[in-house]
Design goal:
With about 525 residues, the chain is mainly beta. About 5% of the residues lie in helices and about 70% in strands. The longest helix has 13 residues.
Length: about 525
């Protein structure tokens, strides 16, 4: 989707998710990074993840057949107001026949954009029992705050009662009742429903919940269905339906409307539909998707299509289009991006050339009427004179034509960048980069430059840390080139038919050391 600047350090409709997992007989681990804009997708993502940046790690170790140790830690940052949440939890589970005994410790800290900070230290105890050949599972868990405050929004003193029953091999019924007793509020919530895999490629879930607190009560229902159909060995179709509906709204005002909260509690009812298709040939592929959402605060329509293929050996091209039409609070916004990409990687040359051309249209009507056209081209050339040295050259050009009410504006901007990297070991490299942004209409030039250090984590996987002594921002050139002043982290991964095999081999080497 097209990108729009938000609060100087993010984009409202971008998303990045990285997830790395390891599984063995006794040990499993997972690390992840998620950065989801507040306007990304159809708006039916997990409400606690929208508009946040979150990274963390999870691990489980089973030293004996009856003892399992769990650990989890993460940090979550609200992209709108920089409020943050840090959580670390450690648990141990001891199993005696069908009985599971659990205990542990949880640390939670929330910091608000006004400087207020709430910290909670909790002990965790729980018991679970499995019946009917493990088809029926009962559990009771209790988190008790032992020091710090009991104000953290998601981690007050609380008790959970839960049950799950495998109705069939593919269908599970569930119910959960929770009591919370925090400094800010006392709540009760109940959620029950089912999740099923009705047939190959299908998934269906439904739930109804009720939340009771001193502000009133809210009853809501949710339904989700997803289906993938493999029509032929080359052609597949998928579709989904998601819905959340408030059955009863709270009847009272907030008990403490001035109490700051780091995350939005906006519970927007919606119904969303999605239909997509993919055709995969030997040297090219085509995909298309239509999405529509009807919500309380916003209606949104999206259309996406694209084709990518290998024109000839070492030369690949792509052509895609995205169209989004959203209506929010009387403002109608249309965003369109037509994109052409080219990648040339000759085997007998030290050069690699990449180019991307975008034609971007944006229109807003309702409040301040605006529309704009942007033609943006980005050219990158990588030169490797010998194994340890790489030099990258970048040139970008942009022409903008914008109308605000009855006033027309236009301008031409170009971007020049260079970066050099040298390997000092097989896994570590150092580099320096610099760039300049030139606005021809205003005659203004901004610069960015600084050092970097890189680490080869695995085959085709590279991480670097850098710092720009000086910097600038441009909505079209800054995202890929890290031109803002200050520190930054850059991660690159090459995906091809050997990626998963190479990554699996590297992980095996790590875990067997």
């Amino acid at each position: 989707t097209s990108r729009r600047r938000q609060n100087g350090d993010g984009f409202e409709d971008d998303a990045l998710i990285l997830d790395l997992a390891h599984e063995s007989e006794r040990f499993s681990a997972r690390t992840y990074y998620r950065d989801i804009g507040s306007d990304f997708g159809l708006g039916h993502q997990n409400a606690s993840e929208i508009g946040t940046r979150k990274y963390g790690v999870q691990a489980a170790w089973r030293p004996t057949p009856v003892l399992t140790l769990h650990g989890e830690g993460f940090r979550q940052i609200n992209r709108d107001n920089d409020a943050s949440r840090e959580v670390a939890e450690f648990r141990a589970t001891y199993s005696i026949g069908n009985l599971d005994l659990r205990g542990g410790y949880l640390f939670a800290r929330e910091e608000f954009n006004d400087g207020q900070r709430d910290t909670s230290h909790q002990t965790f105890t729980g018991i679970g029992y499995r019946m009917l050949e493990n088809r029926l599972r009962l559990r009771v868990d209790h988190y008790q705050t032992v020091s710090g405050s009991d104000k953290t929004s998601n981690y007050p003193t609380r008790t959970l009662f839960g049950t799950e029953y495998d109705l069939t091999a593919k269908t599970t019924l569930f119910a959960e009742y929770e009591l919370t007793d925090g400094d800010n509020a006392e709540n009760q919530s109940l959620r029950a429903g089912f999740e099923t895999i009705p047939w190959t490629g299908g998934r269906l879930n439904s739930a109804i919940g009720q939340s009771l607190n001193e502000d009133g009560g809210r009853t809501f229902a949710s339904l989700g269905m997803y289906q993938t159909l493999q029509v032929t060995d080359k052609w597949s179709i998928d579709g989904s339906v998601d819905m959340s509906q408030t059955v009863k709204d709270p009847g009272n005002r907030d008990a403490d409307p001035d109490e700051p909260s780091p995350y939005s509690e906006d519970l927007d009812d919606f119904t969303a539909f999605s239909l997509g298709t993919t055709y995969q040939a030997q040297t090219w592929a085509w995909a298309a998707r239509v999405e529509e959402l009807f919500g309380d605060s916003e209606d949104r329509f999206g259309f996406y299509t694209g084709v990518v293929g290998q024109v000839r050996p070492r030369l690949s091209m792509s052509l895609s289009m995205s169209l989004i039409d959203r209506d929010r609070d009387g403002d109608d916004t249309v965003e369109m991006d037509i994109r052409h990409g080219l990648a040339y990687r000759p085997l007998d040359s030290p050069w690699i050339v990449l180019n991307r051309l975008d034609l971007i249209y944006e229109e807003t009507a309702g409040g301040l009427d605006t529309n704009s056209w942007r033609i943006v081209n980005r050219l990158s050339a990588n030169y490797q004179p010998y194994q340890e040295l790489q030099v990258s050259l970048h040139y970008g050009s942009k022409y903008v034509l914008e109308t605000i009410e009855d006033d027309d504006f236009d301008g031409y901007t170009d971007f020049i960048g260079i970066e050099a990297r040298h390997d000092i070991t097989e896994r570590i490299d150092i580099g320096v980069r610099g760039s300049a942004l030139h606005s021809w209409n205003g005659g203004q030039v901004d610069y960015a430059f600084g050092p970097t250090i890189g680490f080869n984590l695995a085959t085709n996987m590279w991480l670097s840390l850098g710092y720009n002594v000086a910097g600038f921002y441009d909505r079209d050139f800054s995202k890929a080139d890290y031109t803002a002043r200050g520190p930054y982290v850059q991660f690159r991964m090459k995906f091809d038919q050997n990626t998963i095999t190479d990554l699996n081999d590297t992980l095996k080497q790590w875990w067997t050391r």
